[in-house]
Description:
Layout: H1 9-39, H2 43-57, H3 59-76
Helix pairs in contact: 1-2, 1-3
Amino acid sequence: MAHFDCARASRVLARIQKAEARTPAGLPKLTAGEARAKSADDLARADRSQRRITRLESPDGEARFVKLAAGIEAKCHAAAPGA
């Protein structure tokens, strides 16, 4: 956060909020894609999909968004859009 430009705070916070909303909506699509890759014997694609699903479902992913937003709000004294 040392080199963050506060003029961009509202845009970045809006993007973080949008990414948080998109994550749960994309999981069924990723799961279906993984199943299609396995049925087509494309194990490399299935493994990549599984790694991504695991990363998105982990609590660390959500914590990263929260930590980033909190750091921006603390440094720039800006509230998240809609909050």
